[in-house]
Design goal:
The protein is built from 1 helix and 5 strands. It is mainly beta and about 150 residues long. The protein has a domain of about 70 residues: OB fold (Dihydrolipoamide Acetyltransferase, E2P). A 5-stranded mixed barrel has the order 1-2-3-5-4. A hairpin with a 7-residue loop joins strand 4 and strand 5.
Length: about 150
């Protein structure tokens, strides 16, 4: 039975004698028809710890070497692209410490002179009687609005 061979990018080289390779494939979506990218990570055996993150490699299926490792690295296809990192010397960098400026104390407001108390409004004795009296005065009599009799 032939062994599968895949091509992918090294995502991690932290484990000893192991690299994690992400293999991407393009698939047409079954319902919408759009081409989408699917990826899967494989743990591959790297005997000499020679492959670094970002490199394009070819991996081959093999007998299980550990719980997750069923692949071995065959060859390097492309070198890793250098990252755009600016190197700054430690001596030139000064620690930035912002001292908080003390806020000036707020001026104390002077106490205002007390105003004379307003005269209290007279308390109404009974609110219900006032409402009924108002409604009786405001509404005109029904007799004045009656319609003329039909002839």
């Amino acid at each position: 039975m032939p062994k599968r061979v895949l091509t992918g990018t090294v995502v991690s080289d932290k484990p000893e004698k192991t690299v994690v390779v992400r293999v991407e494939r393009r698939v047409k979506h079954p319902l919408y028809g759009k081409i989408i990218r699917l990826s899967k990570k494989y743990h591959a055996h790297d005997e000499g710890n020679v492959y670094r993150m970002g490199e394009q490699v070819r991996i081959e299926e093999c007998a299980p070497l550990s719980k997750k490792k069923n692949w071995t690295v065959l060859e390097r296809l492309g070198a890793a692209r250098p990252a755009d990192i600016e190197i700054v010397e430690a001596e030139t960098v000064k620690p930035v410490v912002e001292a908080k400026a003390e806020k000036p104390a707020k001026p104390v407001k002077e106490a205002k002179a007390e105003k004379p108390a307003k005269a209290e409004k007279p308390v109404k004795a009974d609110k219900k009687t006032e409402k009924t009296a108002k409604t009786a005065k405001d509404k005109p009599a029904k007799a004045a609005k009656s319609k003329p009799a039909k002839a």
